[in-house]
Amino acid sequence: MTKPRLYSGMQPSADSLQIGNYIGALLQWRELQSSYDAYFSVVDLHALTVAQDPAELREKTRRTAAQYIAAGIEPSLSTLYVQSHVRAHAELAWILSTITGFGEAGRMTQFKDKSARYGADATSVGLFTYPVLMAADILLYQTDVVPVGDDQKQHVELTRDLAERFNSRFGETFVVPRPVIQKDTARIYDLQNPTSKMSKSAESDAGVLWMLDDPAKSAKKIMRAVTDNEGSVRFDREQKPGVSNLLTIYAALSGRQIGAIEDEYARRGYGDFKKGLAEVVVNEFEPVRARALELLDDPAELDRILAANAARADEVADATLAAVYDRVGL
Ligand code: ADP
Ligand code: NA
Q1: Over the stretch 158-207, which tens digit does the pLDDT of each residue have?
Q2: Where is this motif: 'KMSKS' region (predicted)?
Q3: What ipTM describes this predicted complex?
Q4: Which domains does the chain have, with CATH numbers?
């Protein structure tokens, strides 16, 4: 029996991923990769929608791929590749852009937010058509399932609309994918600002735990994490966002229930709790970091893996693109 197909990706927008990416995406990908025919992409074409230094972009792309592998995405089990290595993404995006309404694209809230922030002249057309490229990413592989965060749900809805529209105009061509929204318990917040999500592109990184950081540095950031004056280790997202966030991280990385962790620290202070969490974080990321650095130390091996995986992706993507060209009359 063939496995259902799954597609997901991340932008290479920093030298290191942050642990929100790990808990909210990579851990799930790792779990899903054996029951799905999974495609995991480093979406470097998407990264171009904001200004990039060419050498830095290339480096961040390699580092992101290395971190996928270090986090347990198996390049022999999943197809783990760099988006720009597969030409069909850009080609299908063009075709899909011709069946996307201008108003329809303009209603994407992520575009509205970003363009309002940057201003019209600093907003590229690429940022506007970003969701169309994302639709191409997904539809090229005849994807059944797309695991995404809340913020990408609207883009997956657009992808579904485009797939249905194409199918009804030109004949059945695309699988219509469905989004799987990450669990709320997998959402990690900034340690210094525990009501906004931890992000690679946060203004200050004092509250960001990087996957590739020196473990001692991460431990220090945890010891300095914002809590509250109550002094009890208790989950309450509304009243105690800081402590709740630390509990979420603890539970996600240790595999334990939040209740059990609350019990363990019931009569102990935040200092002990943070020390315990720091230990969990260091234990989790020490080997991940070591493996990523090892991969980055052997560029030829990483190139070989990425080339072999891109070739696999190419095969599937080219077949879809050939069908699309045929249907539209190219
Ligand atoms: P970032 O803000 O770090 O650049 P992205 O928005 O590029 O992250 O998201 C990449 C993936 O990581 C998505 O699947 C997203 O849901 C997940 N992710 C990012 N930040 C977090 C977080 N703080 N908590 C949980 N998941 C996250
Ligand atoms: Na798989």
Answers
A1: 999 999 999 999 999 999 999 998 777 789 999 999 999 999 989 999 99
A2: 197-201
A3: 0.95
A4: 5-181+299-328 (3.40.50.620), 215-293 (1.10.240.10)
pTM for the model stands at 0.95
d(CA 95, CA 92): 5
pLDDT tens-digit profile of 113-162? 999 998 888 899 999 999 999 999 999 999 999 998 888 999 999 999 99
3-state secondary structure of 180: strand
* Residue 200 alpha carbon, nearest atom of ligand 1: 3
Amino acid at 222: I
Question: Which atom belonging to ligand 1 lies closest to the Cα atom of 24?
Answer: 26
- Yes or no: say if 97 and 131 are a contact pair by the CB < 8 Å rule: no
Size (the chain), residues? 330
Q: Which residues are catalytic?
A: 114, 197, 200
Q: Which two tokens stand for residue 277?
A: 């969490």
Q: Residue 69 and residue 63: Cα distance in Å, rounded?
A: 10
